[in-house]
Amino acid sequence: MNALIHVVVALHIIGIAALLGGFLTQMKAMGAGTARFVPAMLHGALTMLVTGVALVGLNQADDQSVNNVKVGVKLLLLIVILALVYVKRDEERVDKGAFAAVGGLTVANIFIATLWT
């Protein structure tokens, strides 16, 4: 079970890398007002959602403690990220506020995952 949990954690990290990488590649365009949500951002967020839910289930099945408040906060942030990216995924230009919100919420999600003990 431990090996499976580590594989799912690795997939979760790949998801966050796709989401954050997509954001970072569009930062110059954000400054010019031409940023858009690239498919990697949507796929990364969906990967995070699926693997995050799987991690909670696997950890509970392995009788490990799960901080439900932390998971709930991270899930809420991810739902907001997914909603923004999904709704505006076909737009050629996304306003700076929505684009910056996705980046900020993504970074907040990373810090919550690593610093909240």
Spatial separation of the terminal alpha carbons: 23 Å
Whole-number mean pLDDT: 97
Give the total of domains. 1
Rg, please? 15 Å
**SSE-based structural type:** mainly alpha
**SSE pattern:** HHHHH
Low-confidence regions: none
Brief overview, please?
This protein has helices at 2-25, 27-32, 39-61, 68-87, 96-115. The protein is an all-alpha fold and 117 residues long.
Kindly describe this structure.
The chain is mainly α and 117 residues long. The protein has one domain. It is 79% helix and 0% strand. The protein has five helices and no strands. It has helices at residues 2-25, 27-32, 39-61, 68-87, 96-115. α1 runs antiparallel to α5 (96-115) and α3 packs antiparallel against α4. It is elongated, with a radius of gyration of 15 Å. The relative contact order is 0.17. The model has no long low-confidence stretch (mean pLDDT 97).
